[in-house]
Amino acid sequence: MAAGAPAERPQPALTPRARRSPRFLFKMAAPSRRSGGKLWAALVPAVLLCTAARASEEPSTVDFDVRPGGEVHSFSRSLGDYTCTFTYSAQGGTNEQWQMNIGVNEDNQFFSCSIWRPQGKSYLFFTQFEAEVKGAKIEYAMAYSQAAVGGQSDVPLKKEEFEITETKVSHREGKFRFELSKLMIVAKTPRDEL
After folding, report:
1. CA-CA to 72 of 20 to 30 Å: which in 90, 106, 126, 187?
2. Does pTM surpass 0.90?
3. To 5 degrees, how large is the angle CA 166–CA 83–CA 191?
4. Are 109 and 189 in contact (CB under 8 A)?
């Protein structure tokens, strides 16, 4: 060794890079005969359950049919502690495909629910409607006679046609003009203050 050269340090058996390799991680995670398979057998279902619970809290869009015939129908979706339910009665035509989208923002402060006809304008004659949220209080809501699609804009209902409470958006009897194509709700979730 030269007089001014630093002494070579021996490489450890498992370098940080080796500790991150898939083979090393598999060996560390897999049960050995000594570690007992019972712990491993209990751990795998717990991890899968946590993953499934987290996946169920992701925003989702679901198709459903709005059915005419004058009967009252409901469609509901839940996300964690929050639920959005659309209840309606409609006449004329045939079933229409609609969508409901629900989600929670990143810091869990707001729950949103949107209900709409993707083709933009419904040709059904709505005799009543109500969208209700559970687990949160409405901060903003709007109802539309036409949903924005293909260069057309959202056309909101007149304020006198519907009413908004802490948990519901619904038609106003005698004022609603029977046209509905979209509902939007943003509701504040309860937060525990520290």
Report:
1. 187
2. no
3. 65
4. yes
